[in-house]
Amino acid sequence: MTVAASPVPLDDWFVRDLGGLYQPWQAAPAPSPELVAFNDDLAAELGLDAAALRAPEGVAVLTGTAVPTGATPVAMAYAGHQFGNYSPRLGDGRALLLGEITDTAGRRRDLHLKGSGRTPFARGGDGLATLGPMLREYVVGEAMHALGVPTTRALSVATTGERVMRERPLPGAVLARVASSHLRVGTFQYAAATGDADLLARLTGHAIARHHPQAAEAERPALALLEAVVEAQAALVAQWMDVGFVHGVMNTDNMTISGETIDYGPCAFLDAYDPATVYSSIDHGGRYAYGNQPQVAQWNLARFAESLLSRIEDDPEAAIPAATEVVSSFAPRFARHRSAGLHAKLGLVGEHRELAEELITLMAEQKPDHTRFFRGLSSAARGDASPVLDLVVDRDALDAWLGRWRAVLDDQDRPAAESADAMDRVNPVYIPRNHHVEAALDAAVAGDPAPFHRLVDVVSRPFEERPGLEEYAQGDPSATGYVTYCGT
Ligand code: AMP
Ligand code: MG
Fold it and tell me: Whose CA is nearest to atom 6 of ligand 1?
């Protein structure tokens, strides 16, 4: 089916450029689609007519039932290392790229559906998604966006009217997702594995033009692309660490070339600060634990580098030293971003790496609530240390550190009160607390979306303390062993 006046003007640069990396496909029809959540803020950013998209014709587009004029929906091909094991053919098993929109700032953004039915990449899967996980992707993505972390965002979640069989029958849903692109490390792995040099060349050129155009000017553009992606991911993962985010499934197919966070499945935010924290029910070895994320990112980037070798030098072997050097630069780049992030969180203007690292060591021992602790430090800067002291067992150890930190703050050109205000602009009051996320999703699945909408509102303004929202600033009182199940 095609709608006459398309509510979404779509381009198809990916499709025109990258034959060999997709299969044209149609979404499965949704019997009675109904919007559960629609992102007006994002629609405005995209220059889309929200009223038209909320109307039945619009919802038909957002669920894949109707294809906008001129669009070529495709299932994208990619490979990937999942928990370290290579799968040569993953791809969009239950997702479709509808095309690209130019937003009001002139940026090209993908519009993509998830949960829109089986595709040629579905393998054993049913091609479907259920409401809870799609809403998790929506609320966590909005929280990340509001926290200033690069991320894909949800434009909408609609139920399909179908029941989807999981551990019990659940409402089926389709997520409409916006990303600066869906090019992944796994896309390069797939292209490289085909042995089709022209395909890999086209993909490399496309990625450079789209995300890292300065690389085109370099002597070896593919090496410059690698470096740009290493830098973008180092910056991204540092931001995850700063806000206490655990992605949960950092497979190479879930790592973007753009540097945006993608695929919110078994993800969660830390309550207590503990680098060993794992939330995913399938991550038995703790491969994707909070504290392992930088190392895993670098491991993934090494897989990216391998896929690019033949683009860096005609003889791939000869490209290894230069590529290795760039991949190895991840660690110092990450350390620099993380340190800058921590300095900002601590209100520090000069270089005080040791002081920052001492605090991280102390937190790993004392395991205070990550978000409340950092937010509480601005009170300490203003003279009341009780909000942070109350979060630790060994108050003397923290008190000693606070003394050293206060001395540095007092010594800065900036008054301590100004530092405290600056800290409040980077240390959130509200994150999507795991128990609130679960409660909101459960309510929505049971037919009441109100708690979900309230939670989205809360996390969309994370730095501004608002009366009446106290419960959203608290950790889970029963936070032992929170587990998220892989979002299917
Ligand atoms: P994910 O863990 O969500 O990143 O997905 C990993 C791979 O499994 C991707 O190729 C997905 O398209 C595919 N996949 C996940 N769930 C389903 C499903 N219900 N039906 C078909 N494919 C799926
Ligand atoms: Mg994925």
Answer: 90
In a domain, 448, yes or no: no
Owning domain of residue 273: 185-338
The domain boundary, picked from 315, 338, 361, lies at 338
Q: Which residue, 112, 437, 429, is CA-closest to 267? A: 437
Each residue of 349-379: pLDDT tens digit?
999 999 999 999 999 999 999 999 999 999 9
pLDDT in tens, 271-321: 999 999 999 999 999 999 999 999 999 999 999 999 999 999 999 999 999
Instruction: Tell me, yes or no, whether 132 and 230 share the same domain.
Output: no
**Pocket probe mutation, ligand 1, options 25, 89, 114, 121, max atoms within 8 Å of Cβ:** 121
Residue 478 burial (10 A CB sphere; 0-12, 13-18, 19+): exposed
Task: State the closest ligand 1 atom to the C-alpha of 126, by its place in the atom list counted from 1.
Answer: 20
Q: pTM for the complete prediction?
A: 0.97
Both 171 and 215 in a single domain?
Answer: no
Count of structural domains, the chain: 2
Mean pLDDT value across residues 442-454: 98
**Residue 253 known to be catalytic:** yes
Ligand nearest to the CA of 265: 1
For ligand 1, is residue 91 a contact (CB within 6 Å)?
A: yes
Alpha helices for 289-433 (secondary structure H): 293-312, 316-328, 330-345, 353-366, 370-381, 386-389, 395-411, 416-424
